[in-house]
Every structure is written in C-alpha cells, then in structure tokens.
Amino acid sequence: MKHSTRKKAISYFMPKMVFCVLTVAAITTIAGYFLASELGLITLNPSIDYWISAVLAIVSVMFVLGLGFLRPIIMPS
User: Fold this and answer.
1) Residues 6+ apart with CB under 8 A from 15
2) What is the pLDDT of residues 18-73, one digit of tens each?
3) Angle at CA 21, nearest 5°, toward 74 and 14?
4) Of 8, 35, 47, 59, which is most buried by a Cβ count within 10 Å?
5) CA 33 to CA 1: how far, in whole Å?
6) How far apart are alpha carbons 54 and 19 in whole angstroms?
7) Are the C-beta atoms of 48 and 42 separated by less than 8 Å?
8) CA distances (Å), origin 15, targets 3, 50, 67
9) pTM (two decimals)
10) What pLDDT score was predicted for residue 24?
11) Inter-CA distances, 74 with 32, 58, 77, Å
12) DSSP letters of the chain?
C-alpha cells in the first residue's frame, strides 16, 4: 500500500477509532466491575480493595497512553 493511500485510510478511520475504542474500554471496565460485584467476587476486604485500585490505575494509564498515541495522528500540528 502506498504511503498516501495509507495516510488517507488512517485519517479516515482514526477519529472513529478513538471514539469507539475509548468508549468500549470504559464500558467494559464498568461492566466488569458490576458483573464481579453481582457474582460476589468483590468484597470490601482490604486485599480486594488494592486489586480494584490497581485495575483502575492500569486502565487510567492505558487511557492516557491511548490518547497520547492517537491524538497526534488525528490532529497533527
């Protein structure tokens, strides 16, 4: 694939991908939390509380990194 064709494809799909990927990541995280709480896997023990904090930290880092990598492609300076 030529560079110009690849650039056009990326310019077309990236704005849609940023919205879709970030939305799916947020919905999956929230759904997983509620599913785990319905199944009784989440209790308020301190050891489990640290796992929830770790998961939220990892998801937050992935969110920021995703924006950092995708935003320059969408809106070049």
Assistant:
1) 74
2) 777 778 878 888 888 888 888 887 766 666 677 777 878 888 887 777 777 666 65
3) 25
4) 59
5) 42
6) 25
7) yes
8) 19, 35, 11
9) 0.48
10) 82
11) 30, 24, 10
12) --HHHHHHHHHHHHHHHHHHHHHHHHHHHHHHHHHHHHTT---S-HHHHHHHHHHHHHHHHHHHHHHHHHHHHHS--
The amino acid at 71: R
What tokens were used for 71? Answer: 């935003």
Q: Give residue for tokens 């785990």.
A: 36
Tokens of 54: 């770790």
> Which residue matches tokens 């023990």?
45
Residue 11 has pLDDT above 60, yes or no: yes
Give the contacts of 55 (CB within 8 A, at least 6 positions apart): 29
